[in-house]
Fold these 3 entries.
Entry 1:
Amino acid sequence: MAIEASVTLRSEHVPSVGRDRIRLLQAVAREGSITAGAKAVGLTYKAAWDALDAMANLFGQPLLETRTGGRSGGGARLTPTGVRVIEAFGRLEAEMTRALRGLEPDLAGSGISPFSLFSGFFMRTSARNALRGTITAIRSDTLAAEIAVAVSDDKTIYALITKESLRELGLCVGREAIVLIKASFVVIAPGNDPPAVSVRNCLRGVVRRCEQSAVSAEVVLDIGGGKTIAATITARSAETLGLSPGKPACALFDAAHVIVAID
């Protein structure tokens, strides 16, 4: 599989800028107008303006010069800063791609890809549970989509996201993804047979550890395949359920509480 890097630029309190927004900037410059550029990359006029504003906020100066009305009509063209941003972004991705390809021989046979290595180094999240897997199925309607992500040979996690998020993230079957679940969203049921409830996700496993304080407890469940999932529950619940290491248990959580992230 050919490897290439995808760069995302961030700044505190400012939306991130990645390849999709750089493509928008290129399309606006190529088409000569924001309306045509937005259409070329499949965005609404408003979404395009929001993205362009975000880029101007991130870089601290305008990337486009716009004109309105007049005999020749409105239009847009890159500022010198806009030209430099596109060129620098392309060089940055090319350099990162070269570095990633250089890592392949060192990772051969390890089961770790350069993609997962880099995301493991750099991804920061407040969610206690972050599991990498592969999208195996997508079901969608006009508003929402259910994404199935296989995180091991026999464990699949389901996420419910909006149709807009499905499109913006470019999710498709076969693509790698990361599922994020806050520990406080996970319910633990003892034994291998969970109660009949409406939650979409039920992961069977074995309690690896249960750490308690006076009020709360963190239960870590080994779900196989080298993967674990953590839950934050009350200390009284942990004692009542008898969640000691080695005991079978199930982790239950709703699909709407699962966030899908991509590299």
Entry 2:
Amino acid sequence: MADRRVLVLEDDRDIAHLVGLHLRDLECVAHICGDGTQGLGLAPRNRYDLVILDLMLPGTDGLEICRRLRTQLNYVPILMLTAKSTELDRVVGLEIGADDYLAKPFSIRELQARVRTLFRRIDAMSQQAGHNGIGVLRLDKLEIDSEKRSVILDGRNITLTAKEFDLLLRFARYPGRVYTRTQLLDLVWGYSYGGYEHTVNSHINRLRAKMEDNPAKPRYILTVWGVGYKFTDTREA
């Protein structure tokens, strides 16, 4: 995990210093910024391996920063830190593309565990793409670039959030395989989001709205009644 570069966007100096200190224990280089607008300028110009993002920032707030980062071609994992801990806040963080969510106050061990998990997940995705030879996946009129994290459907670019992309890639890599909501939640969001199966439903609905000519009669992401969802298998057709 040596030489990982992490941008810490946190306006509480004590918390930012503590986070930076313990990131160094993970052999990470922490760049700390306490202003949202400045941080939004830093993030795209530097190839960070992780952004640790407080929701309540002066200037541009954390939610807006997350939204804008998810419009960039270069993907960076986002771990949100916030004093808010209601279910709605957690769901909002997931919906706009955060990879994980940690409510204050948090333990240093939990912070380090979440960071390690995010790095392992990204490394595994990269290794799997290289091992399977599917950096670019083409299915019918759909093209998914796992490295650029871009999607082209019938010649047009489809803009997806981080989790929408991860969900689509999971489906498209295994056409015809049926996933339950719980399986998808664990595979795409991680074990810490148990109990948020409704988040899977909302992401499926948004994917269909962006990809399907008629979302009520989907062509790509199909419902398997009483079980879950699967990606269409052209061999079955």
Entry 3:
Amino acid sequence: MLLKLENISKGYANPVSGNFQPVLNNVSLEAVEGESIAIIGPSGSGKTTLLNIIGSLDRPDSGSLYFRNREITSFSTREIERYRNKDIGFVFQMHYLLPQCTLLENVLLPTLPDKNAKDARGRAEKLIKRVGLWEHKDKKPQLLSGGECQRAAVVRALINNPGLILADEPTGALDHENALNLINLLLEINREDNLTLLMVTHSQELAEKMNKILKLQDGQLVVINTVQKS
């Protein structure tokens, strides 16, 4: 089992009334290596909150999170930072590439904390070639299209060989053609590298490309559809 959530709950205080508002209510989830999972649900249902907890960008109020049988919720700050950097690859709706850096430099950013990273540049160059961006490696983001920037963001997410890719509306800022191209790229990597892909999306069309579709509503996860991984 790559990822396991047990009874995760999370809520926030309403900034106006001060009343506590539950967002996630005893959510449980399991994901195996190489699985692709789409999470759908209405706006405000807690999809991003759930991804943030899995990626340790936020902590649950209660419940446990396990990654490769390690209980992440009990980690120290330093252990969480390493988990976030080495085990998880993030792809957000906006690419968040640094405008002052070239595409190659942006891809290499996650490797900087690891002084022992071997051949990071060589790996970055191979990944950039793999997604068809080699001729753009020395360009800065403002000279790239939206689709090219998102492909670069995918490469950045892969640079440290993570076991899990968390994609939060990764196609939200793209047109339909570029959205399909990006999802097909993520699924190609999911299959060829046996990487687990967990994606939040509002698109039913894109969700149906995944092995499993889960719906988050009223703080609960419900299985909508499951396709056996080939």
